[in-house]
Amino acid sequence: MIDVDGLRKSFGDNEVLKGIDFSVPAGSVTVILGPSGSGKTTILRSLNALDRPDSGIVRVADVTIDFGGPYGKADIARYRRQSAMVFQNHNLFPHKTVLENIIEGPVIVQKRPRADAVAEAERLLADVGLTGKRDDHPDQLSGGQQQRVGIVRALALQPKVMLFDEPTSALDPELVGDVLKVLKDLAAQGWTMVVVTHEIRFARQVADQVIFVDDGVVCERGTAAQVIDEPAEDRTRQFLRRLL
Ligand code: ADP
C-alpha cells in the first residue's frame, strides 16, 4: 500500500530525513518509534504532502510521486487524497458541532451528497462509541472523545491509508485506553495504518511492523518481537531502555 524510497527532507541547513526507505503492506499496521526530533512526524507528514520532501519516490495506494522530479498541484491533490491524518491535538473547529466537523471534508472538499455524508458520520460515530454526540461542540467532550471525533473525521474522508501522529500523547492517562481501543478496532477491520507513538504495549499488541527511526534514518525495522524484544542495534536498545 505504501512504498518509500530514498525520502529526504531538510529544513534550511537541518537535514531531517536522510534517505528513508520502507514499505507498508495493505491491511497492516506499522508503528514508527524513535527519539524526539528524529524525524518521525516529518515522515508521516511527507506521506500526506503536508511537508514536501526534497527527493525520494513515494507511492501511497494508487499514486506515486517522484519528489525529486517535476510534479504538479493535481498530482499532490491526488496523492493527498490517498491518506488521512489524525493529529496529536485533533485540530477540531471549536465553533462547529461534531457533525459539522466530520462532514466538512466530504461535503465541501469532496462534493459528496450531504445526506450520505451525515449517514456515514453517524455510522462512524456509533463505531467509536459516540452515538448521540453529533450536535455537541468539541468543548463539551472529554479529550479522549474529541480525539475519537478526530479519528472519525479522518475516516469520513474514505482514505486508503490512516496516518496517526502521537494520537494519545496529549491525553490524560485514563483516556488513552479508549483511543487505543479505537485504533485496535480499525486494525482488526483491515485498515492500513501508520502510527507514530510511544505506546510500546500497543505496538506489541497491534503492530505488524515496527520501524525505529533515529537521526533521520531507519535504524532498525522488523516485527514488534524483533525490534522491541530483541533489538539488534545499540541505539534501539538505549531508546527502549529509557522508555520501558
Ligand atoms: P519527531 O516527530 O521524531 O519528534 P520531527 O519530524 O517533528 O521529529 O522533527 C525533526 C526535526 O525537524 C526537528 O529538529 C524539528 O525541529 C525539525 N522540523 C520539523 N518541522 C519543521 C519545520 N516546519 N521547520 C523547521 N524545522 C522543522
How would you sum up this structure, described in words?
- With 244 residues, the protein is an alpha/beta fold.
- Helices cover 39% and strands 25% of the residues.
- A six-stranded mixed sheet has the order 6-7-8-3-9-10, with helices on both faces. A four-stranded antiparallel sheet has the order 2-1-4-5, with helices on one face.
- A hairpin with a 2-residue loop joins strand 4 (55-60) and strand 5 (63-66).
- The protein is globular, with a radius of gyration of 18 Å.
- The model has no long low-confidence stretch (mean pLDDT 96).
- The site of adenosine-5'-diphosphate has 11 residues, from strand 2 and helix 1.
For this entry, give a set of tags.
244 residues; binds adenosine-5'-diphosphate; 10 strands; four-stranded antiparallel β-sheet; 25% strand; alpha/beta; single chain
